[in-house]
Amino acid sequence: MKIHNVNVRWSKWFCYAVIFGVMFSLGGGLVWAAPKGSPWGKEYFPNVELINQDGQKVRFYDDLIKDKVVAINFIYTHCGDTCPAETASLKRVKALLGDRLGKDIFFYSISIDPDHDTPKVLKEYAERFKVGSGWSFLTGCKADTTLLRKKLGLYREDVAEKNLNEHSVSFIIGNESTGQWMKKTPFDEPKTLARLLGYTLSTNKSAYKSSSVSYSEAKQLPKLSKAEDIYRFRCMSCHSLGAEDGLGPGLQGVTDRRDRKWLARWLKEPDKLLAEKDPIAMDLYNRYNKVLMPNLRLSDSDVEALIEFMEASATDAQGHVH
Ligand code: HEC
After folding, report:
1. Is residue 319 part of a domain?
2. Is residue 65 part of a domain?
3. Cβ(246) to ligand 1 under 6 A?
């Protein structure tokens, strides 16, 4: 698609896009059903061509979203920041949805850095995170992926081109056939996201396994301490507090095995330690499949609280968060 056409279309749908944007920005969790003849159909979504991690060409509307329940986020693979954490969180949502992924629910991670993220690079990324089936990693020409971000309300004009790091961490979930779309963050409680995808948005409600926690239950989480709260939402997707490994090492005993200063620095700027080729960091990085521990921009007080929390958890024989 030529830039010229993009502009023409963009102005044609501009009013709708503004309404769309406003609705999405309200509270972040709005759902609405598209009224009959609503503009959120074939005419609204660009049918641009993308390429998946297996090198197959697909069309955004026809092949990816039409008549499907989908979760879409935008990533880039060399991001040491929020993207690995997003991918890890979505992996937990995927696990909760089980074999419905790839049948009636589909996940799409679209690269915002198509120059770097070739299908081969995306394939390596998907393998590194062991994402499994039903989840495609896609790339396309920059004008098209930017148009998609705009159309999906996930584009921030002010920071768009300056800094890849500042890209919107929000993602969108929806059902094209009912016209229901919701903007969320991948850091919402995985059970809540799984229920939204598998039940609330789904036209196949009976497929939802009721053994999963109900929405109201998921919302009534016990009151967490600050460190526990950070751990649950920012760390647990990759780590356990026990000995078992996830994407990253089990954290049991980590406050004994590492020097406190090193630990504080690691939590604060793992990317810098790796860039400096710190021997412990390099050893971990190589042992854990070259998955990057993200720099989560924690404050010094968050780091202190997390170290104390990890220390206290080591004395808890079960290694579970209560
Ligand atoms: C995207 C996955 C991911 C997230 C999210 C994540 N980590 Fe990690 N973490 C890793 C990986 C992978 C390693 C191993 C080093 C590497 O490959 O960079 C690691 C290493 C560590 C280590 C060093 C372990 C050791 O044996 O020395 C600690 C401590 C740690 N992480 C704590 C945390 C905390 C606390 C959080 C949340 C604030 C967090 N991590 C979030 C993936 C993650």
Report:
1. no
2. yes
3. no
Amino acid, res. 228: E
Q: 57 CB contacts (<8 Å, ≥6 apart)?
A: 49, 50, 51
Question: Does the C-beta of 238 come closer than 6 Å to ligand 1?
Answer: yes
pLDDT of residue 319: 42
- Is the CB–ligand 1 distance for residue 235 below 6 Å? yes
pLDDT, tens digit (0-9, with 9 covering 90-100), for 66-88 = 999 999 999 888 877 677 888 88
30 and 114 within one domain: yes
Q: Which atom of ligand 1 is nearest to the CA of 281?
A: 15
Query: How far is ligand 1, taken at its centre, from the CA of residue 282, in Å?
Result: 13
Residue 176 half-sphere exposure, CB side, CA atoms within 13 Å? 22
Is 275 in the same domain as 155? no
- Mean pLDDT computed over 244-260: 91
Q: Supply the range of the domain harboring residue 293.
A: 226-314
134 closest CA partner among 209, 70, 207: 70
- Of the listed ranges 107-111, 169-173, 275-279, the one predicted with least confidence: 169-173
pLDDT per position as a tens digit, 8-57: 333 333 323 333 433 443 333 444 444 455 567 778 899 999 999 999 99
Tell whether 59 and 120 lie within a shared domain: yes
Residue 105, pLDDT above cutoff 80: yes
Statement to judge: residues 181 and 307 lie in one domain: no
Q: How far apart are CA 205 and CA 207, in angstroms?
A: 5
pTM over 0.85: no
- CATH number at 66 reads 3.40.30.10
State in Å: Cα 34 to ligand 1 middle.
42
CATH number reported for the structural domain that contains residue 271 in this entry: 1.10.760.10
303: Cβ below 6 Å to ligand 1? no
Task: Give the end-to-end CA distance of the chain in Å, rounded to a whole number.
Answer: 52
